[in-house]
Amino acid sequence: MKLHLLLSCVALLSVGMMPTAMASPKSPEEVAKYSHQRSLPVAAKVRSPQNPLAARLREVKQPHKTVQSLSQASPLAPASAIVQVKGVRLIPTDKGLEVILETAAPQKLEFSTTSEEATLISNVANAQLVLPEGKEFQADNPAEGISAIRVVNLNDNTIQVRVIGTAAVPKVEVFESANEGLIFSLTPTAQTGQVPAPTPETPETQPQPAEKPAAQAEAEELDIVVTASRVEELLQNVPRSVTTITREQIETQTSVTRNLPDILGQAVPGFGPPTQNRRTGRLQTLRGRPPLILIDGVVQNTSAGFDRQLNAIDPSAIERIEVVRGPSAVYGQGATGGVINIITRQPTDERIQSELVVGARTDLGELQGESFGYTLKYGLAGNEGNVDYRINTSLETNGSWFDAEGNRIPPNDIVDTETLNLLAKVGIDLDEQQRLELTYDIYNDRSDSEFISDPSILDTPGLQTARALRVGEIDQEEPSRQTNQFANLRYSHENLLGSQVDLQLYYQDSQINQEIQDVRTFFGDVPPFIPGIFQTSLDSSKWGARLQIQTPFSESARLLWGADYLKEDSDQPFFVIDPVAFDERREANLLGTATQVPPFELDNLGLFAQLQWDLSEKWLLSGGLRYETIGFEVDDFLANPFSDFDNPPASVAGGSNRVDDIVFNFGSVYKVTPEISLFANFAQGFAVPSLDYLGQATAGFNVEDDALLEPEKVNNYEIGVRGDWGSVQTSLAAFYNHSDLGQNLVIAPSGLTNAARGPQRNYGVEATLDWQPSDRWSLGSSFTWNEGEADFPDDGIDWLALSSLDVQPLKLTAYVENETLPGWRNRLQMLVVGNRDRAFDDEVEEFEIDGYTTLDFISSVQIGQGKLELGIENLLDNQYLPVSSQDGTGIREVVREAARGRTLSLRYRIEF
């Protein structure tokens, strides 16, 4: 039996159509194609916060004007039961379109319907949307007269259906079908301003003020990214390789690891394998060169080369991550390997929303109190009028770690740590076109352990696996910690004299004290000028500004232009520790400081212009240039005591230097078919080498013209193909880059790393494949192979293999995911790391990379109003050394740590 009810509400709307990030059928024929599926898979796509259509969809989640409240009863379920809607189907009709909310059996559904401007809003009060790959469904331009349809979980027991008409709110008839579920039969209202006559079932409502309808742009089933070109752009229009890690993917991966380098290593082709037991990015380059790390556009890299910039924010505070592979002339500021832009959590559409996560983690092989770590996270977000906000807090503790053989892993960046993170964000919509947003984030990572890495392994012939040695608590005057904080103020104007303007001001500060190092046993009798016990530290701050203006010339051509400025102050001393107090009372008292890298000031100014030109619907061009000038200044300093073991630190004269250059980029995309596109790209990068090379200064070092500090310019060539056939997505890219003066790393037999400047070339192939054979199954894989050589000076050989610090071995990832039962999902993922011995054979380094394979298992199930998530890392309990440990030779043999054994993580997540 069908209950036929007619609701008609009219309002006027002007909607500027921009492509969104969800499934978007563009014609009745395409809708019919989709309707053959039981439910449309919801891809994990990125919706840009500045997308006009997305912004319109986010408005009015709590309607103020209730038109009518209707109940449809069935004796098959009580009114309080929560009905699961497992699919959303669209079926074209002669009147318009049917939206079907599929349920397993006839159920009692309670709903109310209202309208706001041209948006029809219906809340189903006792139901929950359970789709296989996400929490919401969206379709753009599904029928003439309808701009968009969105079905979401408004809260834990309410589904909201929103329909935006192009001119006015559509008419709707609501049915309940015993065979299909709840049906919304939509008829678009074509004539702007026309008010239909009320019917007995639909009381008359006040019409809304009329607005001029806007032209609709074609919607695509593709991601929207901003990092590649600094403005919103469809991924299919980007002429280079870009990887987007969504919020859903981040949440999935944090079930097995909360270490950001591991998440990136698992998800990003061209990026080094997961570090697995460290938060440092020492062996994680992007296509063989260092990337620029940004958080909301705020530069995290320091010119002192500390490799901790990825350990700057907790994953719980991240909305998505966009990775541009290859140098960027658009961003500059040292982006010779590419750009990793971490975008923080966005405010909610809800009036108020909370999220609570509690969890624990332990080694399954050593199920004891020492191995337990805990997670507690709380988030609060809201939207009130023209103000929105978000506050995210997280606490994570890590206990002791054990490898697959049950041996305790020595302290590293993660073992025996406590991490706190606070993200606060508030935004104000000054009017329809202007927005002001302020973000502040502070991250604090503190370690405290009774163990050290046993130095006695250095006396054993051959390379050994590091082992822990208990020495008791150490009373530290300067605790081992890392504190990273930034403040970011952003102003945007959508139409200032015909241009879109974005202005950003930011401040960033990093303070790091690493673990205590005792090198007395490494060198025997330590000369008095070399600190036997010390801590490395960093105190770096920077402030900067970004101004970018997008000026359209026509519908097919637009110019992006602007300026970036950054100023950095940095100091990197050794804290010298009193050996007597250390040996007698386990007190780490400071005697003074020594130079690791001398204090310096650096400033960077970049002026850029980028033109995008759509020659036709199939052929797109983009190109531009950037002028970059970089200057630094160093006062007189004493050299690093480890730069010359035979002589006391030399007195080095300070100085200043300034370099500049112009870099270019040019790219093209050709859409062979709607599913397949080809792209080609040439881009240059420009950078001053890391100023930690000042730590290699000896007597006679000249700051102004030493070859170690000469700038580097990289030329990168890339070709690729992308394909998207609905249930299958694939990409393939090949690259080659070259610089005349690369930053080539050489590991000496002592284990210390030095730089050798000379020509450098890198090349490789990257591929991805994802397939959703049904609405319950998905599987995929990625492949990375890259290599590189350098022409080292004064060796009499033209080209030698680059160190494995620069070129990582082959990496293969794969996953299979299944919705075993409604609301219960399971995922098995694999990581394969290959062997690499080229640099060892060429005597560039003293170690070979031995490959390994790991499996992780992830499961999540809906329980009550929340979700229980289980993760098992290293499912097969393999004993191996991750790549990030295998470079430990010489005195660094004490950091050749095995990976963690089989590890269980369990947490419960609830939103309310």
From TrEMBL:
Mode of membrane association: Multi-pass membrane protein
Any Gene Ontology biological process: siderophore transmembrane transport
Residue ranges constituting the TonB-dependent receptor plug domain according to the UniProt record: 236-339
Keywords: Cell outer membrane, Membrane, Receptor, Signal, TonB box, Transmembrane, Transmembrane beta strand, Transport
TonB-dependent receptor-like beta-barrel domain span: 431-875
Main location: membrane
Family recorded in the similarity comment: Belongs to the TonB-dependent receptor family.
Name of the molecule in the record: TonB-dependent receptor
